Amino acid sequence: MAAAALLGGLLPAALLIVSAAPVAAQGAPAASTSMAQGAAPAAFPVRPVRMINPFSGGGGIELTARQMGQHLSERWGQPVIVDNRPGAATIVATEIASKAAPDGHTLLLITTTFAINPSLYGKLPYDPVRDFTPLIQLTAQPNIVVVSTASPIYTVKDLLVAARAKPGELTFASPGAGSAPHLSAEQLKTMAKIDMIHVPYKGIPPAITDLLGGRITMLFTTALSAAPQMKAGKIRAIAVTSAKRNRMLPDVPTMSETLPGYDLNALQGIVVRAGTPKAIVERLGRDLREVVAMPDVRARLEAEGADVIGSTPEQFAAALRREMTTWSQIVKASGAKPE
Question: Which end of the chain is more exposed for a tag (fewer CB within 10 A), N or C?
Answer without folding.
Answer: N
